[in-house]
Design goal:
alpha/beta; 5-stranded mixed beta sheet; 4-stranded mixed beta sheet; 1 helix; about 25% strand
Amino acid sequence: MKKKSKLIIIIVSVLLLTIGIAIPITTGIKKTQQIKKEQAIKVAETKRLQDKAKVDKIIEDKRIADKVISDKIIAEKVEAQRVADKKIADENARIAKIASDKIVDEKLRLAKIESTRIANEKTQSVSATTNSSSVTILNYTIDGKYISACNYPNGATLQFKIGQTLRIKGNLINGATERVMMSMMDSIAKDAYNSDSKDILMTSVGGGDITIVPEKYDWDSSYKFYIVVSN
């Protein structure tokens, strides 16, 4: 009986000892596994953050590159617009200067014509000399499209005696052209008008008119002179 009791005590002691050893071992294994799991989670999170940082950097680099390209395109457009605006402004200034120069030239031409007209306005009826061999000269200048100067005012009456001569002398400059028209055939000799010298010999009492037409057909700028032939 005593032997049995001892045996039971021994068995219980062994079991208790075994359980006491097994519990710490199991707890250590679980703790180790937990640490490894936590470490694996940390490694995964670290890798995730690193990957995210790489992606974020790629996105940021692309954003910066796109902005640089966009800023360059905008700058090029602004510069192109500036150049285009400058060309337009320069062209408008050039056209304005041309127009201004034309206005000034036209004013100077009209002033010159007016000066000539005023200087001769008291000579609306001009008599040739009584010398039967005298020559009266009608002298004028056509500058481009206009009569810029004339020694007789537009509309003047030129008086002659039979046998006197009217010489027409036109000075054509700047590509000017003209047409001289006469309606006084009864007062001049047949073939008396020399087309080279433009001399007109008065042969009989009468009269008519002479019209000088710039550009051959510019009637608005033409000058007309009235001819009177007497004994």
